[in-house]
């Protein structure tokens, strides 16, 4: 049986209303729940809020965090873990809101990643050079101490 136009329109309206109701019942989080989930302090979350990186709604004195806030917190923590500054992260998050295609955001992220990789490769080269120098110096110290012991032992043998 083919539904008539009015029935199809009513079904579409019901689906639209159900989606709106679902948005109204969006999952929310307390500051404590987010702090526990990500093993960070509530103070850190408030700091990110003060910097404008997340913006929970307020109900009295309580902060109510949405799924969007939670995702933004994940991105903040991931960015910090990768060594990005809060300014870098803020720039990335701002593009996330402005560009629905996420192209500009992805281009910015790629540039930041390339810079970070280059920086870490430079640091790795410096560490490798330092390790070589330290190992060379350690070997010289060991050789010196062995030679000193041998001389000391040789001196004792000639006295006997």
Description:
There is one protein chain. The chain is mainly α and 160 residues long. It has two domains: 1-98, Multidrug-efflux Transporter Regulator, Chain: A, Domain 2 (Orthogonal Bundle), CATH 1.10.1660; 103-160. The protein is built from six helices and three strands, in the order αβααββααα. Strands 1-3-2 form a three-stranded antiparallel sheet. The chain is elongated, with a radius of gyration of 31 Å. The termini are far apart.
Mean of residue pLDDT values? 84
Number of helices: 6
Distance between the termini: 117 Å
The percent range for helix content is: over 70%
Poorly predicted sequence stretches spanning 5 or more consecutive residues: 1-22
- Order of strands, widest sheet: 1-3-2
Counted beta strands: 3
Brief account:
The protein is mainly α and 160 residues long. The chain is built from six helices and three strands.
Features:
mainly alpha; Multidrug-efflux Transporter Regulator, Chain: A, Domain 2; 160 residues; disordered N terminus; 6 helices; 6% strand; 3 strands; 76% helix; 3-stranded antiparallel β-sheet
What are the SSEs and their pairings?
Layout lengths: L4 H20 L3 E2 L1 H8 L3 H9 L6 E3 L2 E5 H15 L4 H13 L4 H57 L1
């Amino acid at each position: 049986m083919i539904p008539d136009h009015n029935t199809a329109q009513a079904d579409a309206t019901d689906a639209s209303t159900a989606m709106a109701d679902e948005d109204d019942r969006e999952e929310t989080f307390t500051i404590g729940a987010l702090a526990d989930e990500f093993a960070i302090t509530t103070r850190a979350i408030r700091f990110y809020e003060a910097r404008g990186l997340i913006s929970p709604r307020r109900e009295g004195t309580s902060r109510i965090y949405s799924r969007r806030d939670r995702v933004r917190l994940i991105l903040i923590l991931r960015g910090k873990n990768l060594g990005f500054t809060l300014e870098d992260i803020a720039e990335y998050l701002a593009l996330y809101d402005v560009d629905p295609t996420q192209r500009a955001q992805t281009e910015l992220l790629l540039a930041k990643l390339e810079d970070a990789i280059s920086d870490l490769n430079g640091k790795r080269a410096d560490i490798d050079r330092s390790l070589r120098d330290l190992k060379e110096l350690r070997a010289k110290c060991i050789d010196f101490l062995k030679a000193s012991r041998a001389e000391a032992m040789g001196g004792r043998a000639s006295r006997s």
